[in-house]
Amino acid sequence: MASIAESLAQWASELEPSAEDLALAQRSLVDTAAVTLAARNHPLTEIAAGLPDAARWAAIGHVLDFDDLHIESTTHISVVTVPVVLATGGDARAYLAGAGVMARLGGALGWSHYSAGWHATCTAGAPAAAVAAGIALGLSTEQLATAMALAVPAAGGVQNAFGTHGKSLQVGFAAQAGVRAAELARAGATADPSALDAWLELVGGTGRLDLAGPAVPGGLAIKVYPCCYAMQRPIAALRDIRHDIRGAVRGVRVSTPEPTVKPLIHDRPGTGLEGKFSLPYAVATALLDCYPDFAAFTDDAVNRESAQRLLRQVEVSYTPGEEGLLTGEVDIELEHDGPALRVSLAQPPGAPSRPPTEAELREKFTACGEDVPGLLAAADWKSVRELLRQFFPRTGDVE
């Protein structure tokens, strides 16, 4: 029986993208480039300046937490695979091969892997990055399986890093590990493909793979707000009622299925990064800010008196729910000077079943920088590669 790595390598080698697959690849390229350019002045850009291209671009692209998400696997697919493909001179097919492997590996790892505290973007990302790089570099099917096995030692990353630079840096490490593994396989390195099977079992994966369907099964969720995806739904729900609030807010009660807030580990955030992983702060920014953009997730914004006061007024209760970040719906009740306001929401804007509108995408890309829509007007893989080299050149070396 073929190993998991061999099965995935065969699928990737034989992939013939459909028109729908290619449209998804183009949207992912543009979205990832936009959120990476948005971080051009972030402190991490200088910190990561000595990293290789794939690691540097992936870390910078993830630091604002504005990149897309594959809901079923709870992985940030494009911020791993797009930088890898750009760094290795690949195209849409290489992206789709890596993205498809990442979606399927993340699905095989399952919710229990994520809920145990692993950062699935990194664990599924390293072997998937090896495939994306391998297709770009012209590896054979056998070499692709070898590259996935060679990426296993780097397939790590934990949620304790959320709210720090470590989260985006470990995504960069996973991306670069895939490039390194593919280059070693091309150079003739050997490895046992069944290492991926053994690793999958050790980290709690089911090992079940479905190779049918589109390149990326389930599609990708596009973020409308620059924060953890678990905050997108409560923010969107509250924005629907914020204009009906009269006088002072006296209390906010949030009820949500417990799995939907697994990544939100900061109840009392004190920094902008911590605010991106805080359900109480999701309430605060949704009520205080006309549009929760990058300015809403700075240290000053999180620590403003009005936000800290609202944090203390939020009560959260959890209901049982199926696995996943979008299971069930969020229910919110808000007390103010008028009759209590109530709102429920199942699918936020940008979810695969509720794709972002053109207006929402324009608002997002403009928030990433007034010049970003123009820079990406005719984006293709080659032009984006040159754009990132221009804005994020490598300076020095990080061992």
Q: What's the SSE blueprint?
A:
Blueprint (H helix, E strand, L loop, with lengths): L3 H11 L4 H19 L5 H5 L5 H10 L14 H11 L4 H24 L4 H4 L1 H12 L4 H11 L13 H22 L7 H9 L29 H8 L11 E7 L14 H4 L3 H10 L10 H5 L1 H8 L1 E6 L10 E6 L5 E5 L12 H10 L4 H4 L5 H11 L8
Parallel strand pairs: 1-2
Antiparallel strand pairs: 1-3, 3-4
Which features does this protein show?
399 residues; alpha+beta; 2-methylcitrate dehydratase PrpD; 60s Ribosomal Protein L30, Chain: A; 2 domains; four-stranded mixed sheet; 19 helices; 4 strands; MmgE_PrpD; MmgE/PrpD_sf_1; lyase activity
Which term fits the overall shape?
Answer: globular
Helix vs. strand class = alpha+beta
| Beta-strand share of residues | 5-15%
Q: How do the strands line up in the largest sheet?
A: 2-1-3-4
By oligomeric state, this entry counts as single chain
Indicate the CATH architecture of the largest domain.
Orthogonal Bundle
Structure report:
The structure is a single chain. This protein has 399 residues and is an alpha+beta fold. The chain folds into 2 domains: 4-224 and 354-391, 2-methylcitrate dehydratase PrpD (Orthogonal Bundle); 229-345, 60s Ribosomal Protein L30, Chain: A (2-Layer Sandwich). Helix 2 (19-37) packs across helix 4 (53-62), helix 2 (19-37) runs parallel beside helix 19 and helix 5 (77-87) runs parallel beside helix 8. Strand 3 (330-335) and strand 4 (341-345) form a beta hairpin. The chain contains 19 helices and 4 strands. The protein is globular and about 70 Å long. Helix content is 50%, strand content 6%. The mean pLDDT is 94. InterPro entries: MmgE/PrpD_sf, MmgE/PrpD_sf_1, MmgE/PrpD_sf_2, MmgE_PrpD, MmgE_PrpD_C, MmgE_PrpD_N. One of its GO terms (molecular function) is lyase activity. Residues 225-374 form the MmgE/PrpD C-terminal domain. Pfam families: MmgE_PrpD_C, MmgE_PrpD_N.
